[in-house]
């Protein structure tokens, strides 16, 4: 089964699957948090999304509160913060766990992929990025500190576009 078949809810609680969210397009999956030192990456993620959406790409934000409780808000608070502070238009899901016994099914299919340093395993922090192709296969993984505008990340995204 592809990670695209994994059930998840949108931030507003509507049940869906990752495949319905991405529409079978390449996507950058990012575990996001509103109270993290890396939170300003939302701006770069939105820019990346806007620049490539017409070419069949989307960013998907997956809020996670597993790292020092840095995503404490309700879905409405998360949506308001992202929209008002960073103008986020890319799709967001409900809060999920990316590590541990309750790791969401989506992340079970991601964490075996090594990042740009060759390291695989648990998600290390907020804003870790996984690029998947239109069929849900993992193409690349980027550490939390890799900015959305990093040339290697942008090149990886562009390599998946028509």
How is the secondary structure organized here?
Elements: E1 7-9, E2 15-17, H1 18-22, E3 27-32, H2 41-52, E4 58-63, H3 75-86, H4 105-108, E5 129-132, E6 138-142, H5 151-159
Parallel strand pairs: 3-4
Antiparallel strand pairs: 1-2, 3-5, 5-6
Describe the structure in your own words.
This protein is α+β, with helices and mostly antiparallel strands. It has a 4-stranded mixed beta sheet with strand order 4-3-5-6, covered by helices on one side. It has one domain (3-16, 23-159): Glutaredoxin (3-Layer(aba) Sandwich), CATH 3.40.30.10. The chain is globular and about 35 Å long. The protein has 5 helices and 6 strands, in the order ββαβαβααββα.
The residue fraction in helices comes out at 25-40%
CATH superfamily: Glutaredoxin
What is the H/E order? EEHEHEHHEEH
Number of strands: 6
Mean pLDDT, rounded to whole units?
A: 96
Short description, anyone?
By secondary structure, the chain is an alpha+beta fold. The protein has helices spanning 18-22, 41-52, 75-86, 105-108, 151-159; strands at 7-9, 15-17, 27-32, 58-63, 129-132, 138-142. Strands 4-3-5-6 form a 4-stranded mixed beta sheet, covered by helices on one side.
């Amino acid at each position: 089964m592809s990670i695209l078949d994994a059930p998840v809810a949108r931030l507003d609680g509507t049940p869906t699957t990752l495949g319905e969210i991405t529409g079978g397009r390449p996507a950058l999956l990012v575990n996001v948090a509103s109270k993290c030192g890396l939170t300003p990456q939302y701006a770069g993620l939105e820019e990346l999304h806007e620049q490539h959406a017409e070419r069949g790409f989307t960013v998907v934000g997956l809020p996670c509160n597993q790292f020092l409780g840095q995503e404490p808000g309700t879905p409405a608070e998360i949506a308001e913060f992202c929209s008002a502070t960073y103008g986020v238009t890319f799709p967001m899901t409900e809060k999920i766990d990316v590590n541990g016994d309750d790791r969401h099914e989506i992340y079970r299919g991601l964490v075996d992929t090594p990042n740009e340093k060759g390291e695989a395993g648990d998600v290390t922090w907020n804003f870790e990025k996984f690029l998947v192709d239109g069929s849900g296969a993992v193409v690349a993984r980027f550490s939390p500190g890799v900015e959305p505008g990093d040339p290697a990340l942008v090149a990886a995204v562009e390599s998946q576009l028509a």
